[in-house]
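W.,

You were right to be curious about this one. When I first looked at the sequence I had no strong expectations either way, so I just let the prediction run and decided to look at it fresh. Below is the sequence, 402 residues in total, followed by the output.
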Amino acid sequence: MNVPCFNCNTTTNLDVNFDVKTFACPNCVTVYKQTRDEGLKYANKFKPYSFDGKLKLGSIGTFDNKQYTITGLIVKSNEGYEWVEYVLQGKADDYLYLSESAGHWTLLEQIDFDKKVGNHPKTIDYENQVFHRFDWCFPKIEAAQGFFDFDIFDSAELIEYIKPPLVLSFDRLGREQTAFLGKYIEARKVKKAFGVSSIPVRRGIGMAQPFYLNVGNLAITLCVVALLILLSNWYLNKDRVANEVLNTGLDYQTYANKEFISPSFVLRGSAAPLTISLYSGVDNSWASVQVALVNEKTSEEVYASKDIEYYHGYSEGESWSEGSNSESFNLCGVPEGKYHLAITPSKAPEDVNTKSVQIKAVWSSPSMRNVWMIVIFMAVVIMGMFYADQYFENKRWEDSRN
């Protein structure tokens, strides 16, 4: 369809498959209305408006492998809030409607909806889903471009209900009601659909924008994972008992210049800490024990050392003491295998009274510490996502009249 604009002498050429009732010149935003005898006739002219950043009239976009052409776009506003509505015509005379507000996009299509919503009920049902009232208004037309099968100046009421990422939108003109079902669409998909690289930057939270993830599904998933971890840990270790692999006394003098090599021992089952307990009768002195756990199959060695210190005395009328004759430490996460211990004890050279150190090594049941740390971490994640979701929803509904 070729339409010349008598205001700016620009001719707009675009194939449309409907009877045009209103035409808005894309160059000078002069508006023409269809008349019975004279065809399109001058009706109005918008104030100058910059369409920079908007999708262009005549642009072709692909949705669900179908091509659609932008045949018209209308810029609307209400109480300082502005959005753009695009009419998309398909090759099979089907239509989609694309709405952009603050960089948030919604793709809509017309549906049949018999229930009237002029009284603005708080909720409405559609296809077994409950939608909540978000807002209603009589929007003002700021500018327009292209061809329309309706009078764009008709004062229609807009009523919107949401169940993110879905939205139900109603245009009411008198007793006539037109319903649209829409779904939030990511900006990158709009770019891909129209083959453009620049579109309005997203600001704030969109009316139908979904939260970044489904908190309910996340909670269920993490709870199931936590339960599986607890059950697996219980099953793998339900028959486990403490396994004492060494209990001996070592003479400091005998092992002053050599290592004590323990008998070999075999550990079977899931990884668990090897707890090494030490006792030496040091008195105002110290002793030290160095331990190496040697995997006899891989020759891998794990080293650890521990000091035993005990001091006491009497000062300023009061007795005092620090340290202990006993110490213990863990070699964490020791897996099954065949091992032996290489131990080197030592003591203070001036200590002639302390003769030996008692060493006991026990491979115990696996520590639940890591299991509970994982469970607690998942619980914290769920709580964090829950509060983030609540904050997200509160921000969404800040400007709503619900």
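Here's what jumped out at me. The chain has a mean pLDDT of 91. And, maybe more interesting for your project: The chain is about 15% helix and 50% strand.

Coffee later to discuss?

I.
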